[in-house]
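Hello,

Our lab assistant flagged a job as stuck in the queue for most of the afternoon. It eventually completed. Since we weren't sure the result was trustworthy after the delay, we are filing this so someone can double-check. Below is the sequence as submitted and the structure that was eventually returned. Let us know if re-running is recommended.
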Amino acid sequence: MAEPHAATPFDDKAAHSQHEDLKAEDTHIVAERGHAATDIYGHSLVHFDPKAEARLRWKIDLYIVPTVSLLYLFCFIDRANIGNAKIAGLDKDLGFTGYDYNAVLSMFYISYIIFEIPSNMCCKWVGPGYFIPLISLGFGICSLGTAFVHNFSSVSGVRFLLGIFEAGMMPGIAYYLSRWYRRSELAFRLSLYIVMAPLAGAFGGLLASGILKLDHFGSLHKWRMIFAIEGIITIGLSIISFFTLTDRPATARWLTQEEKDLAVARVKSERVGTTEVLDKIDVKKTLRGIFSPVTLVTAFIFLLNNITVQGLAFFAPTIVQTIYPKDTVISQQLHTVPPYVVGAFFTVLFPFLSWKLDRRLHLFICSAPLMMTGYIMFLASHTAKVRYGATFLIACGAFSFGALCNAQVAANVVSDTARASAIATNVMFGNIGGLISTWSFLPFDKPDYHIGNGLNLATSSTTLILSICLLLWMKMSNKKREAKHVDEELQGLSLHQQQDLDWKHPGFRWRP
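-- returned structure --
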């Protein structure tokens, strides 16, 4: 299964001797706790059989990705269906005036942001195989509860609870998948569940239009049926996932012992100084994940991007309504579908390229101009077809950032603890952007929405500038790291102290 890595010459004799001893280790030994899979320079001590890795990767894809993708699909539907409910009469029935709708959207993001990091650390502590189904059940119940609200206060309360349960979903799944996949593989696998966001926009519009054709669902009518039916589906999926999700490779009944060892060893082989894939929660490593320069800049880019993504989710039906004001409600719902379908294709395409190239920042730089062009079209034209075409370009550029940003922060820390906190920080910043998006398209600004479109043009332009600057900084930092003497830097430090260095480890290199 595995062949020893070719010896690498070191200046330090002790390091060279340690490397020679590990040359004979196979994946079973390397996978065990207490054994490193890299030398102090970050070079893998084991070569893996590409065919064995491909078989394992395909098996993990089939057992893990479909379940989390379905859960995330309905997570996003349960969050965004309020946009479909609005044009079906929710705001009128609940007596909304002025900025009430924007305020209700904001309630979701307040709890979402507050519980982001605590939720992901709880996910690590409890184990994602149990935690993800549990929070899925919670937000399914909240969606169902929204069908029975009767005023502004009650819908605000339910949306606040929805935010608590959904806070752990995106970062929790990203962290969960990072237990199974290599750095280069992760972005594409993340895209396979994050693509459910644009598909939720498409499928949510189709589902809402189908539900609205019903006369009633029990005692419920109109928009109330949307929340009830979609909430019940989510509850059913979450119950099934309690039995289908497995926590980590070591507990996977569908893997042989040989495959379990390979799954652990190949992940460890990319993490300099790591002797265990699933370390205990550690304060220093948690802070390393949060305050990594790459985490903070990438998270801010994700904040900017989420102003666009969440704005589309909540206001696409309203925007389409202003473009095609004379169409029926069902026709308007259906018009929201095509841009999301095209956006979904690019959501998978860019991370697929990331997998093959093992690059993420370059794809940030390619995506931003698509969004910029779309918002320029919105601001420059009043023609319905041009503005509708702009939504396609925006969707193409915007949705891939969810996978790419999470993969980027995950690739640029070492330990499992730092990875959990880095991903949570990234998503927390992203949802601050979501909160901003709830106030970007204001009632007095329609039908042209100059404020919302101008804001999104500014965010996409800033994304391009920051991505280029971060890429240049990472290359400069890596050159400085190349000049360091790793042995001297680590001299006198215990193994625990070396592992607490995380991305400050002298053998670590930034991965753009």
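-- support follow-up --
The delay was a queue issue, not a problem with the job. The result is valid. The domain at 50-504 is CATH 1.20.1250.20 (Growth Hormone; Chain: A;). The chain is about 70% helix and 0% strand.
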